[in-house]
Amino acid sequence: MKQTAMAALMIALTLGAGAALAQQKMGDMPMKDMPMKDMPMGTPSQGQTHHAIGTIKKVDAAKGTVTFDHGPVKSLDWPAMSMTFAVKDKMLLDKLTVGKKAAFEFVQDGKGYVVTGVK
Questions:
Q1: Eight-class DSSP state of 37
Q2: Which residues of 3-24 are buried (b: 16+ CB within 10 A; e: fewer)?
Q3: Closest CA relative to residue 76, chosen from 119, 106, 110
Q4: Rounded to an integer, what distance in angstroms lies between the CA atom of residue 41 and that of residue 62?
Q5: Of 14, 29, 37, 39, whose CB is crowded by the most CB atoms within 10 A?
Q6: How many beta carbons lie within 10 A of that of residue 69, not counting itself?
Q7: Which CATH class is domain 42-118?
Q8: Residue 29 CB neighbour total at 10 angstroms
């Protein structure tokens, strides 16, 4: 009986340590250019407006997207990274210049994120 209890305890400790190690390694994972589908989500954010500041890296009018190299987004617990966003209103794209720094806001739309405003 003692051996069974001891074995169960060892297994539980081993699994717990493995999970803790995996979580610790997640912080070391490079986030730059990470696809949105792989983005860690701390809390559901559907409908919540998020704010970031970043440099415009690419504007794709045909696809209706803009790529920002942005700083951390506290409301989503995101680190700084480069990310492509859809744009809610394609008229915004005319106001964006590659290489310029801009403050922008975005919301979650389904599984993706959509820029709703740029200053």
A1: G
A2: eeeeeeeeeeeeeeeeeeeeee
A3: 106
A4: 29
A5: 39
A6: 16
A7: mainly beta
A8: 10
Residues 104/52, Cβ–Cβ less than 8 Å: yes
Domain regions of the chain by residue span: 1-30, 42-118
The per-residue DSSP string of 61-116 comes to: TTTTEEEEEE--BGGGTB-SEEEEEEESSGGGGGG--TT-EEEEEEEEETTEEEEE
The dihedral region occupied by 50, where left means phi > 0, alpha psi between -120 and 50, and beta the remainder, is beta
Write the pLDDT tens digit of every residue in 38-77.
Answer: 555 444 455 799 999 999 999 999 999 999 999 999 999 9
Q: What are phi and psi of 53, to 5 degrees?
A: -125, 130
Supply φ then ψ for residue 69, to 5 degrees.
-100, 95
How many angstroms separate the Cα of 69 from the Cα of each of 28, 80, 100?
19, 8, 11
pLDDT at 20 over 50: no
- Radius of gyration of the chain, Cα coordinates, nearest whole angstrom: 20
